Automatic annotation (TrEMBL):
It comes from the Bacteria. One of its GO terms (molecular function) is DNA-binding transcription factor activity. Pfam families: Rrf2 (PF02082). PANTHER family: HTH-TYPE TRANSCRIPTIONAL REGULATOR YWGB-RELATED, WINGED HELIX-TURN-HELIX TRANSCRIPTIONAL REGULATOR, RRF2 FAMILY. It comes from Kaistia nematophila. This is Rrf2 family transcriptional regulator. One of its GO terms (cellular component) is cytosol.
């Protein structure tokens, strides 16, 4: 089963962008996300449209965070990514004639809805600033180096 890792990847690079304090190119972000720069630009476009990031072309250009990290939640980022499906699980048939399958679908649907609601509440309670603070705590506890921030080899 393939997972949609865009939210995780975007949060990862947003924290790197906050740490950098200067524009980061799509190529460098792509290295951090282990993907192609075109994919990064497509993903970041949604964040740009939502007002979270800005890009500059040319020498010295790249992506920068322009939002207040304390005001942006993980749910905000999730929505800017297009609200991808939370679960890969689903019903065998959406409109079954079989009464057994109807009972199974009703039970699963209820569980899916409860789980999704809980996840969305959690995403709405965590800000980019809280993620950055968690990183800084881990960095200090481990006596981190520039490599821990830059992905340098």
């Amino acid at each position: 089963m393939r997972h949609d890792s865009r939210l995780s990847g975007v949060l990862h690079v947003l924290l790197h962008m906050l740490e950098a304090g200067e524009p980061i190119t799509s190529e460098r972000l792509a290295e951090m996300m282990s993907t192609n720069p075109v994919v990064v630009r497509r993903i970041m476009a949604g964040l740009r449209d939502a007002g979270f990031v800005h890009s500059e072309k040319g020498h010295g250009g790249g992506w920068t965070v322009i939002c207040d990290p304390a005001a942006v939640t993980l749910d905000d980022i999730y929505v800017a990514l297009g609200s991808p499906p939370v679960f890969a699980l689903g019903h065998r048939s959406e409109n079954p004639a079989c009464l057994v399958e109807q009972a199974v679908n009703a039970s699963l649907e209820s569980a899916f809805q409860e789980a999704e609601q809980l996840l969305m509440e959690r995403l709405g309670a965590v800000t980019l600033a809280a993620l950055a603070a968690d990183f800084h705590q881990r960095y200090l506890a481990r006596r981190g180096t520039e490599k821990d921030i830059s992905h340098a080899s």
